[in-house]
Amino acid sequence: MDFSWLAKYTPLLLSGAWQTVALLGISVSIGFVLAIGLALAQVSGPLWLRLLARGYCGFFRGTPLLIQLWLLYYGVGSLLPMVPGLRSSFLWPILREGFFFAAVSFTLNHAAYQAEILRGALLSVPKGELEAGRAFGMTPFLLLRRIWLPRAIRTALPSITGEIVLQLKATPLAFTVTVMDLYAVAYKVRQDTLLVYEPLIVVTLFYVGLTIILTRIFKHVEAQVPVRR
To answer: Fewer CB within 10 Å of terminal CB in the chain, N or C?
Structure first.
C-alpha cells in the first residue's frame, strides 16, 4: 500500500469532501421541505393535488437517479444557453456548473422518497390527538405545526435517517456531470498515480466516518424526542 500521494492531494481531497458534504446538505435540507409539502398534498390535499404529488413521487422513485441527473444536465442544461440573455446574467456562473444540476437532481429525488415516509407517518398519527387539538380551537395550520407534523416526524425519524445515509452514498454520481466531489478526486488520483485501491480506501473511510457521525447525531435526536406510545 502506497499512501505517499496523500500529502500532495490533501487540499484537493478536502475540497472534494466539501463538495460532497455540500451536495448532501443542500439536497437533504431543501428536499425535506419539499417532502413535507408533497406528503401533506397526498394526505389532505384536493384530488388534483393528490394526483400530482403521487405522480411526482412515482416518477422520481421509479426511475434511476443517474438517469434523472443526466436528463437534467445533458437535456435541460443543453437548452439553457439558448435562453436569451441568460449567458450574460448573474445566474449563468451558477447554471453552467454541474454542481447546480447535481444539487437539483438530488434534491428532487430525495424529496420523493422522504415524502413517502412522511405520508405514512402523517397517517399513523392517532386521530384522537388531532380531534383533541380541534376541540381546543386550533386552526388547521396551528394543528399541523403543534401536533400533526411534529408527531409524524418523531415517528419517521429512523426512516428519515436511513434515507439521508442512502443519499450520502448516492453523491458519487455527481462525478458523472463533472462535479469534483470526493470520488472524482479519487478518480483523478488514480489517473495521476496509477494507484487503484489506496484512493478508494480513503474515500471509503470518509463515507464510513460520515455515516457513523450522521447516525449518532440522529440517534441522539431520537433519544431527546422519544415517540409517545
So the answer is: C
